Structure formats: C-alpha cells, structure tokens
Amino acid sequence: MTQGLTSKSDYLYVTATGAFSLxxxxxxxxxxxxxxxxxxxxxxxxxxxxxxxEPQMMERFYYGEFAARSVASFVSRGLSPATRFAYVLxxxxxxxxxxxETVAVNRGMRVRAFDNLEAARAWLEAA
Length: 127
Known about the structure:
Strand 2, helix 1 and strand 3 form a beta-alpha-beta unit. This protein has one domain: Transcription Regulator spoIIAA, CATH 3.30.750. The longest helix has 18 residues. It has four helices and five strands, in the order E-E-H-E-H-E-H-E-H. Strands 1-2-3-4-5 form a five-stranded mixed β-sheet, sandwiched between helices. The chain starts with a strand and ends with a helix. By secondary structure, it is α/β, with parallel strands linked by helices.
C-alpha cells in the first residue's frame, strides 16, 4: 500500500493505492496525521479508490478504532480535534453500511466515507 500526500490551500489531499492491509493502513494513517499536524490543516480528503482488497469486519472495526484513538492522541501534537476526514472509496473497500466510519464516529472522530469525490469535497467545504 502506497500513499501520496499533497497540500492544497485548505486541506490535505491523500491518495492511496495497492492492496489493503490493516497494518499498512494504520502505519499510513499515522504518516498522514504527522502531515496534518505539521501543515496545521483541519480537513483531509483521502482518495482510496485505487485500493484493492476486501477487509474483514473486524479489520474495519480495528481500523476505525485505531484512527479515532490516533486522532485523539495527536491533539497534543497540534492536531485540531475538529479536523474532518473525508474518505472516498469503492466497494468492497468501502463497506455498504459504512461500518468503519460508524466505529470512528462513535469514538469522537469527525469522519465520513463516500463513494463520490465531489460529495466528499462538498462535505469538507461545508465545515
């Protein structure tokens, strides 16, 4: 799994490609948070439409839990607790009922999963 990070005027644009792996996804998420804190942005647009694989339900749970916990821990490093994360994914990486999103939101993370890039951008801009 590889990840590209591009700083835009008011958000970080992240592209991810390759095969999904929970360990890789968690490592890449921490790298992304480092950039968010360093750049002092409060919006992240994650484009994972080029990811392949079929995460199991427990992997979705662990990723959502890890992401929310990591965001909370990065607040002490300059990350705003109001940072919004818009994930653009395609099935089967994107769960039809957005299970990973629900796990993260229930733990305080401001995140939404989309199957459409424009809808994700609109949600970020509405903040």
